[in-house]
Structure formats: structure tokens, C-alpha cells
TrEMBL record, chain A:
Coiled coil: none annotated. Residues 1-21 form the signal peptide. The gene is lpoB. It comes from the Bacteria. GO terms for biological process: peptidoglycan biosynthetic process. This is Penicillin-binding protein activator LpoB. Keywords: Signal.
Automatic annotation (TrEMBL), chain B:
This is YcfL family protein. The lineage of its organism: Bacteria, Pseudomonadati, Pseudomonadota, Gammaproteobacteria, Pseudomonadales. Residues 1-20 form the signal peptide. The keyword Lipoprotein does not apply. It comes from the Bacteria.
């Protein structure tokens, strides 16, 4: 009896010793990294470039003093004039998000959101499905005072030893009524790879 | 024996002096956080101002070596309570030529920022 009990105790002890107390499940080759780290895996447009551009542009615009009284801004897509595929919408989304957090501007539905906005208004007003008192009325959308538009271009040079990529990101805030550019800034990035 | 004791005492006193005093609150040194290694670059004057509601800073950096240096940096913006405001900044790279001195400009992420720390690191 004692021997059987001892055996069971030893098995239980071994089993508890083997149990995984780590909150990690899976391969040790996969790890989570710092999303804010400087990424130099290749010299193509990367996460650090996107974050640096968004940070630099947002702060320059927010601190410029032009956005007095939280004006309504319409964001246009950034024109990609580089030879690479760059999801420029992510740049504008980051700029928009960061500006929104500063509380200095409000944003009108941009070209991609507009269809959803119109569809929702039509659905609420024309379908007859909704209680009248809760329906959002048409004709009350707020028009943008400014439009924010930009472009990204690159100059790529290669030799047998080097590859040099120079990115230039430009952003401007234009007064819709007057057509005047009220604010403008640029961010330049140089990335060189030595073979 | 007396000489030995005096020598030991002097050593103990010197060792005590060798520990740098902690930076005074509000001083330029108190705003710099060295992440691991930071060699060959000296941090000089810091200018802080509030412009259009946002805290702005300019930090003087000098390469004190005769070779080009690279450093990594980011600003951490703090509220009046000393706690971080907004999201963390991305790390950035700065290249300094031999003996070059430059000013690092920065604008706070949010109007609520009242202070900052500059996190620095050399490769």
C-alpha cells in the first residue's frame, strides 16, 4: 500500500514538474518585437519610415497654429510617385489618427469613407426601416475647411557597391475656399545599403 | 601600520567621490536617459518652450570624437504628473560627422505634455 502511494506521489510530482508555467505557447523561433524599433531589414520603404513621416508631419501641422478652432479637414490619398508599392493610405491614416489625438482638427469623410456615409444616410432616410426621431437627416454633413494632400517620391541610385534610396514626403494643407496652401512641410529620408 | 590605515581610508574616501551624484531635478542631465551604451556624443544645452500650445525642445548634441557617429534616440513626453502622455515615439537614427555639433528639434505629441525625457543609445 505504502509502495503504491509513494509511486503515485512520485508520478504526481513529476507531472507537476513537467507542467508548463510559461504564458508562451509555440515555437521559440517566433517572438514579438518592439513596434517602435528602427527597422533596417532592407532599404525599401519600411515601418520606421512610415512612423517617422507620420510623427514628423502631424507634430509640425498641429504645432503650426493654423488649426485654430478645430477646423474640419478632408484627407486625400498621398500620391505614390516612387517605383515601389507603398500603401500610402496607411500614412494618411496614421497622420489622421495622430492629429485626432491632439484634438486640433476634425475630419470629414474622405473619398473612401464617402460611399459608406452616403449609403448609410440613404438607408436611414429612404428605407422606412428606422424610427423617424432617430434618423440622421440629410443635408447636415459638415464640409471641410481645408484639404490635406501630399506625395511621396524617391530617387534610387545603384552602383556595384551601394544602393542609395532617397525618399521625399511632402504634405500641404490647402484652404478649400481660397485655394491657398496655408501650411506645408517635407520629410526627407536617406537609406544606403553597402553590398 | 598607521600609513596603511590612512591609505585605506583615503581609498575609501576616493571611491566614495568617484560615484557621480544623481542629476538635479530639472537640470539638462535629468532629462537624458541613457539606454545601455552612449559613447562619443555629449549632450549640451537644452531649450524648452511652449509654442502654439505644444511643448517644443531643442537639445544640443556634439560628436566629441574624430570619427563619424551614429546614435538612436526618441523623446518620451510626460504630463504634469510625470507620467507619459500619448503613445511611445518611434526610435530614430541620427548621424553625426566627426566633431559635429547639432541641435535635435522635437515637438510634443500632445498639448498635455509638460516635460520630456530624451532616451539615447549608441550602437
Amino acid at each position: 500500500m505504502f509502495a503504491r502511494f509513494s509511486m503515485l506521489a512520485v508520478v504526481a510530482l513529476l507531472a507537476s514538474g513537467c507542467s508548463n508555467t510559461s504564458p508562451v505557447l509555440g515555437s521559440k523561433n517566433i517572438s514579438y518585437g518592439d513596434t517602435k524599433a528602427v527597422e533596417t531589414v532592407t532599404n525599401e520603404f519600411g515601418s520606421t519610415d512610415l512612423q517617422m513621416i507620420a510623427e514628423s508631419m502631424t507634430r509640425s501641422l498641429a504645432q503650426s497654429g493654423i488649426l485654430q478652432g478645430r477646423p474640419v479637414v478632408q484627407v486625400y490619398d498621398v500620391k505614390n510617385k516612387t517605383s515601389e508599392y507603398i500603401d500610402t493610405r496607411e500614412i494618411t491614416t496614421s497622420i489622421k489618427t495622430q492629429l485626432m489625438k491632439t484634438g486640433t482638427a476634425r475630419f470629414a469623410s474622405d473619398n473612401t469613407d464617402m460611399q459608406s456615409q452616403v449609403d448609410q444616410l440613404k438607408l436611414q432616410n429612404q428605407s422606412g426601416l428606422y424610427k423617424k426621431s432617430t434618423v440622421s437627416k440629410t443635408g447636415n454633413m459638415v464640409a471641410a475647411k481645408y484639404r490635406l494632400e501630399g506625395s511621396i517620391s524617391s530617387i534610387v541610385k545603384r552602383s556595384s557597391d551601394y544602393k542609395d534610396v532617397f525618399y521625399k514626403f511632402s504634405l500641404q494643407l490647402v484652404d478649400v475656399e481660397s485655394g491657398l496652401a496655408e501650411w506645408m512641410d517635407e520629410k526627407e529620408i536617406r537609406k544606403t545599403t553597402e553590398r | 601600520m598607521r600609513h596603511f590605515i590612512l591609505g585605506a581610508l583615503a581609498l575609501v574616501l576616493l571611491a566614495g567621490c568617484a560615484t557621480p551624484p544623481p542629476p538635479e531635478p530639472g537640470s539638462a542631465a535629468s532629462k537624458i536617459v541613457v539606454m545601455g551604451k552612449f559613447k562619443g556624443i555629449a549632450v549640451g544645452a537644452i531649450r524648452v518652450a511652449r509654442e502654439n500650445g505644444f511643448l517644443t525642445a531643442k537639445v544640443q548634441l556634439s560628436n566629441i570624437t574624430s570619427s563619424n557617429q551614429t546614435m538612436y534616440y526618441r523623446f518620451a513626453w510626460l504630463g504634469a504628473d510625470g507620467f507619459p502622455v500619448g503613445d511611445e515615439e518611434t526610435w530614430k537614427v541620427l548621424s553625426l560627422y566627426a566633431n559635429q555639433a547639432t541641435f535635435l528639434p522635437a515637438i510634443a505629441n500632445l498639448p498635455q505634455a509638460a516635460d520630456f525625457r530624451l532616451e539615447v543609445k549608441t550602437p
